[in-house]
Amino acid sequence: MLKHLYDTDCVTWSPQGKLFQVEYAMEAVKQGSICLGLKSNENVVLCSLKRQPSELAGYQEKQFKIDDHMAIAIAGLTADARVLCKYMRTECLEYKYTYESHHPVGRLVFKVAEKSQHKTQSGAKRPYGVGLLVAGIDPNGVHLFETCPSGNYYEYKCQAIGSRSQAARTYFESWFHLFEKSTLEQLILHGLSALKKAIMEDEELNEKNVEVGILGKNQKFIHLNAQELKEYIQKLETFNANTQIQQE
Question: Are 49 and 33 in contact (CB under 8 A)?
């Protein structure tokens, strides 16, 4: 049977048991520029590769602060990400107004996943074409979640989404056992190393096309400035050489 008979909305099942509109939304996430996250017992780091539509345009923002204790990195449609970002910020403000404390990270991720899943149950709507990496800290510890357009969500020690993200995940598989006790500097360098594995051969990381956000138990969410990024990128070669020796 023809595929196009079953992909005009997100409530029609194909004979293979698939919802093609949801799969198309997942593909939009895979084609977005890469972002990744990794965490230790004390800190969580988000790294993103920024793109520019043309040489005349600026770089597209890839990370958004939700609250002092939470931030997101996105892959996919930025417009959809802004809608979810606004929703998450509103939920945090309402929770803080009601309970005078920060919104629990896992509970907010569940709300976002539920909101995404509702978009797959109506023929008059479409799924969000964006995936989120949600970094946060609450009394339960340090968290890194991924949300999908399908409504699924998962908690990770480290994860990468977007274009060419498999290379970054392969890097993480070799080193994630060290992340738990790593320092903040080591986490940042591991994140940049994974990002470097995922870019094209003719591309280079620099302070303009890289975005790094950090969050810790004693550190509100901030972005590294251009000078700090430049210093970390310069340390990469030495860091990669040392890790290669450790691996051998």
Answer: yes
Contacts of 32 (CB under 8 A, 6+ apart): 74, 75, 76, 77, 130, 131, 161, 162, 163
The model carries a pTM of 0.93
Return the structure tokens found at 207.
């302070």
Contact predicate 195/34, CB 8 Å: yes
The DSSP secondary-structure symbol of 104 reads: P
| Per-residue pLDDT reduced to its tens digit, 190-246 | 999 999 999 988 889 999 999 999 999 989 999 999 999 999 999 998 887 667 656
CA-derived radius of gyration, the chain: 19
Whole-Å CA distances, 37 to 57, 84, 94, 165, 168: 26, 19, 27, 11, 10
Q: How far, CA to CA in Å, does 63 sit from each of 42, 72, 156, 175, 232?
A: 20, 6, 18, 24, 19
Q: What is the pLDDT of residues 160-175, one digit of tens each?
A: 999 999 999 999 999 9
Q: Which two three-digit tokens encode residue 23?
A: 């799969």
**Dihedral, 139, 178, 237, 59 alpha carbons, nearest 10:** -30
Name the one residue in this structure whose structure tokens are 């274009």: 163
Cβ-count burial of 240 within 10 angstroms (0-12 exposed, 13-18 middle, 19+ buried)?
Answer: middle
